[in-house]
Amino acid sequence: MLRNSWKRNIFPSSFLFRLTFINIIVIVAFVTFSSWAIYHTACTLADGLLAMTDHRQHQFRTTLFQYLCIFSISTILFGSLIHFYLTNKVTQPLKELIQSTQKMKQGQYPPPIDVKTNGEIATLSNNMNELVQQLHTNEQQRKKLVSDLSHEFRTPLTNLNGYLRALQNGVIEGDEKLYQSLYAESTKLTALVEQMEQLKEWDDIASQTFTEKEPTDLKAFIEEVIGLFYWSLQEENMELDVHLQSGVVTVHRTSISQVISNLLDNAIRYYEGAGPVTIIGEKLPDKYKLSLTGPGRTIPESDRERIFERFYRTEPSRSRELGGSGLGLAISKEIIERHHGNIGVYSEGNLHTFWFTLPYSQ
Length: 362
Known about the structure:
This protein has helices at 2-49, 54-105, 120-168, 176-207, 218-227, 230-235, 253-269, 301-304, 328-338, and strands at residues 214-217, 240-244, 248-251, 277-283, 287-295, 342-348, 351-359. 63% of the residues lie in helices and 12% in strands.
């Protein structure tokens, strides 16, 4: 363990020294060759231009050699020092990156790296900062999700255990009303399990490339998806007002069907007030736009900006009837963006319109 720690701590310095050593070798080779060339060139010129005795010629060569040695040593020394200083400045972000990765390996979230330069190292440092921030955000969302799910599982499980223990001990007798209560609690647990399944669904969506796209008439396709909600609309006594134009778009049918289902399911689940749920499909010059408008509780403006974030929910009370896993709209956004489209929401009071667009050419 101590040996590995020593290696980690010495790595940045040893890396810097290796760079400096390589630079010194290059400088020495270059200066030596240059000095040798200058020396022999000067001696040859001196022999050809001046008539010197052997003593004067020896003295000239000795003096020239001394000056070249001084010049070479000074160049190597100052060049190496300047190289060491500049390389140390350049590799400083790398040292901070190494320290950051070591802290991440220990389960800590390092502070952001201060980027003062441009270039590849700056890009790497910025990417590292974004990665740390994303991991930190994911960790917070994971803890929140676990807290939410444990909170929501606790109540129906407590109710079921209480009823079943009472039945077992003969404290109460089973009747239709009791069985309905047990069934309601069981249904809530099933819904929570389905929410957990959406986590796997999110990972599947994120890894898909949607290569199996096919030209689809969205008018007929949307009508087909809406038909699946016929009984749900009947049970809620909700009216649906549909206005669709034909438009052929190349899409991954299964995933786009999921987006439409998510939006319509939300419109039914969060329906409050009076009036129909309106679905409008418009064929625009370069894209097809589908919008779904319905009444519901007011969405604060701050929530509208984050409503498509993973795990984000506008229901702060964690109501089991209203609160979901916060993945449906995030998955929908992922799908639409993979189709090079856009998705959004705008509200006027308690009337909300969710919309998305799909370009004709993708």
